[in-house]
Design goal:
The chain has four helices and no strands. The chain is mainly α. It has one domain. The radius of gyration is 19 Å and the shape is elongated.
Length: 117
């Protein structure tokens, strides 16, 4: 994300002959990098932790946080700089992975419960 943020071609301008004065959006890049690290920490919590028991419980807890956050962040995707789009892509890829892992864990747990009876 940091390397993409340094490329001026990834920013929207209305006309090529009238380029806007450009300043690097350092604050936005740092905030998106911190958000990406926080989202990655949530994914690590889902995959590696034993705190909430089974993976499907941790996955549901993570999805309750990540899906509204993804919807909120994705509202401003039109004319977003490249680093913002990369973050949105990463976030929805993470949500999809956690959702697939959660559904798989829930199905396996349900099958194990039915076999035990």
């Amino acid at each position: 994300m940091i390397f993409i943020s340094l490329d001026r071609r990834t920013y929207f301008t209305y006309r090529e002959q009238y380029p806007a004065l450009w300043e690097h959006p350092t604050t936005a890049v740092v905030l998106m990098a911190l958000a990406t690290m926080a989202e990655s920490a949530i994914a690590c919590f889902v995959v590696a932790s034993l705190y909430l028991g089974r993976l499907w419980r941790r996955g549901l807890a993570a999805l309750l946080v990540l899906v509204p956050w993804g919807c909120l962040v994705s509202m401003v995707i039109v004319h977003s700089p490249g680093f913002w789009m990369l973050h949105i892509f990463w976030l929805w890829l993470l949500i999809a992975g956690i959702a697939i892992a959660t559904m798989t864990s829930a199905v396996l747990h349900t099958c194990a419960v039915f076999r035990a009876r």
